[in-house]
Amino acid sequence: MSELERNMSARECILGSIREHLAASAAHDAIEAEGLAEIPAPVEVTIRPSNGSRLSLVETFKEKLASVGGHCIVAHDEQEVVGALTRIISDLQKTPLRARRIALSNAPQLERLLAQVEVDVDVIETSPGTAELFEYDIGISTAQAGIAETGTLVLDSGRERHRLVSLVPPVHIAILEMKNICLGLGEALAAVQGSEAHEVSPTITFITGPSRTADIELTLAIGVHGPQELYVIVNDCEG
Fold first, then answer.
1. I want to staple 157 with a disulfide (CB 3.0 to 4.6 A). Which of 47, 71, 197, 203 is the partner?
2. Distance CA 168, CA 170 (A)
3. DSSP secondary structure string, 64-87?
4. Which H or E run contains 141?
5. Cβ–Cβ < 8 Å for 148, 64
6. Same domain? 58 vs 154
7. Among 126, 113, 213, 192, which Cα is nearest to 165's?
8. How many folded domains does the chain comprise?
9. Residues 76, 132: one domain?
10. Contact between residue 68 and residue 149 where contact means Cβ atoms under 8 Å apart
11. Looking at the whole model, is its pTM more than 0.90?
């Protein structure tokens, strides 16, 4: 028997076995189908947290962010946000990360906040050029939403020039309003779009903890393709 004939014979055996088992299972399929017909169709539920669960969302976000190596600080007003920025920058200056040159996104409140930070730095620049960003130690931006389930930040570049500021410097500090923390991805995207059908930018950045990769000999490395430290200041402006 030739090689082709042996392959054809094996193929016929396989197909014959499939046909045999399909015929034998027909009766069982009918019984299962009859049972499934009695089960009501699942009701699609959309989870939307009430104001009463907002604190639990923050705690979940904080826990999930910590689990992927990020840091979360909850502030209750602008002065606490300034205090958190002061502590973060001051502590970083005691490390090899230096924290002497700070790049800001073009979010209007950032210049006001940094003007109140009582830490000696060399440069604070808003939206520096792409090539210049590689010379900065910290990038500071806001975030348009947060996802509690995964501790993820959602950055919509259509609303703020923060994509490179959040990705290039070795440290990223993000300021997130507590009211913009959502449970899951779908709710976060709906929040970014807004009630007035705001056109979502074609560039939305999702950030979950510091940059990490394991594509170099399967060894986990932090900060290869982005920041090695991520700090999120959650501002409870209604607190």
1. 203
2. 6
3. HHHHTT-EEEEESSHHHHHHHHHH
4. strand 138-142
5. yes
6. yes
7. 126
8. 2
9. yes
10. no
11. no
**Cα(41)–Cα(208) distance, integer angstroms:** 35
Instruction: Convert the pLDDT of each residue in 18-59 to its tens digit.
Output: 566 556 655 555 554 454 344 344 333 333 444 446 679 999
- Considering the domain architecture, whether residues 18 and 62 belong to the same structural domain is answered as no
Full residue range of the structural domain in which residue 12 is found: 1-45
Regarding whether 127 and 33 lie in a shared domain, the answer is no
Which of 27-36, 60-69, 137-146, 184-193 is predicted with the least confidence, judged by mean pLDDT? 27-36
d(CA 100, CA 121): 5
Are 23 and 136 in the same domain? no
Cα–Cα distance measured from residue 143 to residue 187, given in angstroms and rounded to the nearest whole number? 15
Please give the pLDDT value at position 49: 45
Which residues are registered as beta bridge partners of 141?
A: 174
CA–CA distance, 162 with 155 (Å, rounded to integer): 8
Taking the C-alpha atoms of residue 152 and residue 149, their distance in angstroms, rounded to an integer, is 8
